[in-house]
Each structure stands twice: as C-alpha cells, then as structure tokens.
Design a protein that fits this description.
single chain, 232 residues, 7 strands
Length: 232
Amino acid sequence: MAEVQANEKGGGKKTRQKKHTLRVDFTPMVDMNMLLITFFMFCTTMLKPQVMNLSMPTAETNQPVDPVKARESTAITIIMGADDQLFYYEGKLTDASYTDSTFLKPTKYGEEGIRKILMKKNAGTYEQVQELKVKRSAGEIDTKMFDSLSNIIQKRANTELKIAPTVLIKPLDASLYANMVDILDEMLIANIGFYQIADISEGDAFLYYNKTGDDSVLSPAQKAQVASAKKE
C-alpha cells in the first residue's frame, strides 16, 4: 500500500511548492514471498545422488573383498601421474617389461585417449550396455531393470565369453583428485564392469621411473639399487 502525505507550512499561507512524503507498505509482499517459496519447495524435483560401485582393496590382505580373476589377455593397468600424465600397459608385468620401452604407453584423458582404448578393449559388451542406456533414457526400462540386465551382460562377458576387461587404476601420490574423477567417468562412459583402485606396486613404480625418469615414486630400496647401478 502506498500513501502520500502532504505537509503544509506557513500557518495557512499558500506556498508555491508542496513537499510530499511517499511511504510504500511492503507488508503484503511478505505473504507473497512465502507463497512463492512454498510453491517452489513442493514443485522442485530434488537431485538424486549418483553412486558408482568401486572395488577397493582391504587393509589386511590388500585384495578386493570380492576379487575378480583378471586374465592376462584382457587386463589393463592405468598409472596416473603428476601434471595430468596418464600411462597404461596391457597384460602382466614381467622382467622383460622393464627393458621394453614400448610396454608402458603414454595416453591422455578424453575421447581420443584412454576412452578409445577402453572402448576397444570392451568391444561387444560396450554396445550391449549402450543399447540398454538408450532404452533407459527412452523410458522403456527403469534404473533397477537397467542395473540387472547390465550386470548379466557383464558377468556373461567375464565368465562365459571371457572378453570383459579388468582395469586396475593406480594413482601416484602426485596425481590430482580431478584426474581420479575423470578416470572414473571414463569407466562409466566405456561401460567397464570390472575395475579397481589399487596402490601402485614397486614394479609399476620402477616401470614409471624408466619411462619418465621421476625417481620420487621409488622406494628407498629401489633408489639405492638405482644409485648402485649407476656407479657400476
């Protein structure tokens, strides 16, 4: 409500200009704001948190709670380094791997990097799970049905067809948290059903050192061996 008050001065004498005091009453707006807040509270859909399942190693055995037997032909190990560095190798680490300069391969995050490699390793399973994602987006199946069918496809690819890749993700201490988020996103995009975050082993650390020359990842015993080898 707005009110205009006129003040006259001069004992009844007419003045050339009158001063008006304007006062706006905002009391009704309080009720209107409360109605709007109530309306948006009831009509807004709350975001549901997205959860991803991770297979983490236990403290006692350093093995996942439900271990997946990784085949050498389908295993891939990803090493996350500092400054957005990303490396990977396929198969099992052997003594000959340390002298093979092409065993540990550099790559990058994104569509033309690690994603392309993962999708190639997951060929066959990726297409089937992708079809389920399309049906879920179209409303043909719900999330519960999608999870059930995708688990069946991935387990069949692992146990029967023996084509499902097992990915080991090994971040260095110098790697960034943002890189971890990126690599987990790549697992979801490539429809990787079996992956695990693990501590980097001494063998992986030495392989990384041979590739980059960064000895900060080596253990004290490894540094002593490297120093001794250089002296010889």
